[in-house]
Every structure is written in C-alpha cells, then in structure tokens.
Amino acid sequence: MLRRIKVLTSLFEEIQESNNPMLPPSSVLCLSELFSVIRRIKSTMEGCKNGSSLWGLIQTERLSNQFHVFVKEIARALDILPLSLLTVTVDIKEQIELLHRQAKRVELYVDPKEIQTRDVLLTLMASEKNMFDVETVKHVFNSVGLKTVLDYEEEMSKLEDEVHKQAGTGGLIVVSNINKLISLVSYAKSMVFNEESEENDVRQVSGSVGKNTSASFNVPDEFRCPISLDLMKDPVIVASGHTYDRSSIAQWINKGHYTCPKSGQRLIHMALIPNYALKSLVHQWCQENNIPLMECSSNAESEKKTCEKAVDHISATKVAIDSVKRTAEFVVGKLAMGSVDIQRQAAYELRLLAKTGMDNRRIIAEAGAIPFLVTMLSSNDPRTQENAVTALLNLSIFDNNKVLIMAAGAIKNIVDVLESGKTMEARENAAAAIFSLSMIDDFKVAIGAHSQAIPALVGLLREGTTTGKRDAAMALCNLALYNANKLKTVAAGAVPLLIELLMDDKAGITDDALGVLALLLSCPQGLEAIKKSRPLVPLLIDLLRFGSAKGKENSITLLLGLCKDGGEEVARRLLINPRSIPSLQSLATDGSPKARRKANALLRLLNRYCSQSHNPIG
C-alpha cells in the first residue's frame, strides 16, 4: 500500500508543480476520492500501529480484506482520471497506468505465515495455562514485536482498551476472546521473565517516564481542536460559535469549505475571533503539567499570516459553487444522453461529488440528477446500479433531497436493489438510503407500507457483511418507531435472527440488535417472540456486565419488560442466576441515569417475587 501511495504522490507533485488553474472536473473528483481513500488508509495503518498486536494478528483476514478494498477503491477512482488532459510527464503517466492496471486485477492475499501464527495463538488461548510450551509463546509474541516486560504490559493495556471498543459491536464472544488474550499475556509474562529481569525493566521504565513527563498526560477533550484533535495553541471562535485551533480552521477555510466542521452550519462570515479565555486555561494547564509553551509562541506569527488569507473567503466560495454547478450540469447531461459506459462513469462522478458538502448535494439535485439516478437503479450493469444507489444515498443526507427522492418514486426501486441488487455493496447502500430517508417521520410510514421493504432489510440482516447488517439494523430501528412497522418486523422473522446475531462474534452489531429488540418489546407480538428465546436471558445478564453503556441500557430495558406482565418464569431464571443480582446492583449504582432507574425498578420487582417465596434480596 505504501508503494502505491508513493506512486500517487509523484502524480500529485507533478499536478501541483504544473500550476494549472483549470483541472478537468473528472480529475478533481478523482483526486478528491483518492484523498478520501488515502486518509482512511492512514487511519487504518495508525490503528494497526497503535492497537493491540495480538488482536491484530487474530484479525489478520479482516485487515487483509480491508486493504484489498482500499486497492479496489483506488482503481475505481483512477477509472475517471483523464491522464491525457493533465500536464504530467510520460514517465508518470506510465507509472499511473501500470498502477491502475495492477489495482484492477489485484486479488485478495492473506499471508499464510500470519494465518499459521494466528492458529497457534488461538490454540494457546484455548489451552490450560500450565499446558502450553513457554518457547511457543515466546515465538508467537516475538513475531508481533512483544519482547520485553514493557511490551507485555503495553499489550495488556491495549487489549483492555480494545475490550471497551468492542463492547458495543463485537458482542460477548469477542470480549471473552480479548479477555482470554489478556489472561494469556499476563500469565506468559510471569512465565517468560524472571524477577530480576522484570525489576530491571521496571527501573528502565520508571527512568524513561521521568524523562518524558509531559508525554504521559492526557490532554482534556475541551482543550483539543475538533479538527486535528491536538492541543490548541491558538484557539479561535468561528461564526457558528465553535472553537478550533487557528491553523487547523484556517487550512479548512482555505481549502474552500465554508461550513463549520463540527456542526455543518454555514458560516455567515469567515472572521476568526481569538478565544482568550480558553487560551488562558490551556496555558495554565500546560504550566501545571510542565508542558512547554515555546511551540505555541514560536508558531503564532506564522499561523496568523496563514489565517489572514482565510478572513475574506466569500469570493473564493462563490467560485467554488459556480464550479460545482458547471460540473453537475455537465455530468447530468452525460446521464441523460450518454452510452451505458458514459452513464456508469457519470453516476460514479455524481456519487463522488455528492460525498461531501451540503451545497454539492443541493446543486446536484437542482441540476435534475435525481430522476435519472432513480431510473438507473433498474440497470442490469452492476457498477451502474451500485453507483446510482450510492449517489442517491449521498444526496439523501441533505433533507430537502429526501423529499425529492421520495417524490421521484424511488422507494420501489431502492427496495428492489435492497432485495436483489447486483452487488452486496449496492444492497447495503440501499439499506443505508432507507435509513437516511426514514429519518423523516412521514417516510417511516411510506417505506413500511411497501410490502417487501422490511422483509428485505431482515434478509440483509441475515446475509450482509458487518456494515450491511448494521445498516439494516439501523434502518429497522428507525422504521420500528412507527407501531405498524413493529408488527411487520416481527412477522418477517427479525426477533430470532437478532438474538442469533447477539451470539455471533463476527456480526459486530450488538448494540444495534439490542436497540431493535428493545423497540419490538412494546409490541405484544414482539414480546411473545422475545419470550420464546431461552438463551436470551443469560445473554442479557452477561451484557449487563460486559456491554457498552448503550448496550447495558437496552439489556436492562429488555429484562424489565420480560419480567413485567406475568414474567414470573423470567424473574425466577434471574433469581437463580448468581451473576444477575450483583450485575443489577452494580448498574443501579454506577450506570447511566436511565440504566440506574430501570435497574432499581427491576430489583424492586425481583424483590417482590423473591419475598413471596423466601427472603427478600439483600
């Protein structure tokens, strides 16, 4: 991946050096998409670098697939790059063409050595602590860079962080596997290192901590710039009232953005007002924690110069809008009159253009793109269909476009794509489009009225990737806010499937599945379907202990609902489970306000059941 990005960097540098003020519209869209892909690649690489090495090893197939998807996205972006119209050298053109050809035909590759090492690690996790070979453990841990006591301790800390990340998505099996890894690393540490080497490492660690005191402090969230996430050196307030670091917001504005990055609100002026109160607090915090302020003062002058360019950005903004209008009208013309290949490319260009910026989405709709895109949902060409449904999804983020999309009769075609789209990505983006459209209450009714909409979402919940399952669950969650749709969701067989997904460590939608079940609980048919599941109650008890904050709230909602209205059997099963009462008492003390209220209500209910037969709960 790094080699590919280096080749692209050469292209970027030549385009920059050519100083051509009028790049072809399709090249701008291509470069914007490449920027988006490279940014996600960077985020993934940083996640691999900063996350748990052992958990990364277990996830090796998923990560390999993720990088394979990135390569395919680069190839699709390069499909619309008009190299012949760019002022670049022949050498660069040949390199980009070669990269394009290779990226289009690249196949998924998973390193067999990593798979073998991962299988050994899984065997170690399943073994009794006193049954595995220490040399095998050392070999596996060394292969991912764990060699010293400090490495082992950092790995345990990273695994504990991973537990919190996975609580709302990975489910109990994933959390259990990570806890097994923590236990394995802890035991291996005591086996691999003797006391003397451990003490030496600890002394080295304490010495390094003394030298890097400032690095050990966590910057408070309110002192971090929402754009860069770094400590703000020169905080300024924009027209929306939000505060950013001067250099970050200046770069944002100079790139042609005229909305607040945090709220999306249009900025009525581009003035940057110094936030002296926050700057004083930041300086005070830095002094208290021995963090040097020299960098702030040394860069202040250069940052102010940078921001002077951002103060009056209105004329540049108008130019940007006019450019988008011309591009949108040109591309919609290709949709209307072009061949199948040109229509496919045009749909992809609109998909990219609608990816960012509310004004872009408004302008594309005003250019008349929506009816053409709705028609293209019925295309027999997989890429055309996928690009059309994704473009409609991106356009639907702008609320006015939701009305236009529904008025164009899109829901039937979107449901058809959801049910039997040519590609899984098209089906999943159709589900995401339904979720977006269903944000408007009236459309919850209209979408639910389509006989196949909810069954098709349940089908994707069964067959989709993790992303698709999540999109389907979120759409069902939105639709189930309307009572008539709850009955349809139950009738489509959603309840047993959602419970099954709670036990699937690869599904990754624990919180979303719980959210839908909690909504279906208020429907009599939903309550009856949920009551039929024997594994659910012990599963919910475990989620009270290991789930996310949202997951705990929905778990307690489900348990409370199951115990009400004649739920003596569920109450009895709760009372005989040794983990239930301590978990409820812990939640009643430390949970969110909603969780505390429901936990106390459930404890009172159980106390009532308990007192009818023997001693009340202590």
TrEMBL record:
<feature type="repeat" description="ARM">
    <location>
        <begin position="452"/>
        <end position="494"/>
    </location>
</feature>
<dbReference type="GO" id="GO:0016567">
    <property type="term" value="P:protein ubiquitination"/>
</dbReference>
<keyword id="KW-0677">Repeat</keyword>
<dbReference type="GO" id="GO:0007166">
    <property type="term" value="P:cell surface receptor signaling pathway"/>
</dbReference>
<feature type="repeat" description="ARM">
    <location>
        <begin position="368"/>
        <end position="410"/>
    </location>
</feature>
<dbReference type="InterPro" id="IPR016024">
    <property type="entry name" value="ARM-type_fold"/>
</dbReference>
<dbReference type="Pfam" id="PF25368">
    <property type="entry name" value="PUB10_N"/>
</dbReference>
<dbReference type="GO" id="GO:0061630">
    <property type="term" value="F:ubiquitin protein ligase activity"/>
</dbReference>
<dbReference type="Pfam" id="PF04564">
    <property type="entry name" value="U-box"/>
</dbReference>
<feature type="domain" description="U-box">
    <location>
        <begin position="218"/>
        <end position="292"/>
    </location>
</feature>
<dbReference type="InterPro" id="IPR000225">
    <property type="entry name" value="Armadillo"/>
</dbReference>
<dbReference type="Pfam" id="PF25598">
    <property type="entry name" value="ARM_PUB"/>
</dbReference>
<dbReference type="InterPro" id="IPR013083">
    <property type="entry name" value="Znf_RING/FYVE/PHD"/>
</dbReference>
<keyword id="KW-0808">Transferase</keyword>
<comment type="pathway">
    <text>Protein modification; protein ubiquitination.</text>
</comment>
<keyword id="KW-0833">Ubl conjugation pathway</keyword>
<protein>
    <recommendedName>
        <fullName>RING-type E3 ubiquitin transferase</fullName>
        <ecNumber>2.3.2.27</ecNumber>
    </recommendedName>
</protein>
<dbReference type="InterPro" id="IPR058678">
    <property type="entry name" value="ARM_PUB"/>
</dbReference>
<dbReference type="InterPro" id="IPR011989">
    <property type="entry name" value="ARM-like"/>
</dbReference>
<dbReference type="GO" id="GO:0070696">
    <property type="term" value="F:transmembrane receptor protein serine/threonine kinase binding"/>
</dbReference>
<dbReference type="InterPro" id="IPR045210">
    <property type="entry name" value="RING-Ubox_PUB"/>
</dbReference>
<dbReference type="InterPro" id="IPR036537">
    <property type="entry name" value="Adaptor_Cbl_N_dom_sf"/>
</dbReference>
<dbReference type="InterPro" id="IPR003613">
    <property type="entry name" value="Ubox_domain"/>
</dbReference>
<dbReference type="InterPro" id="IPR059179">
    <property type="entry name" value="MLKL-like_MCAfunc"/>
</dbReference>
<dbReference type="InterPro" id="IPR057623">
    <property type="entry name" value="PUB12-19-like_N"/>
</dbReference>
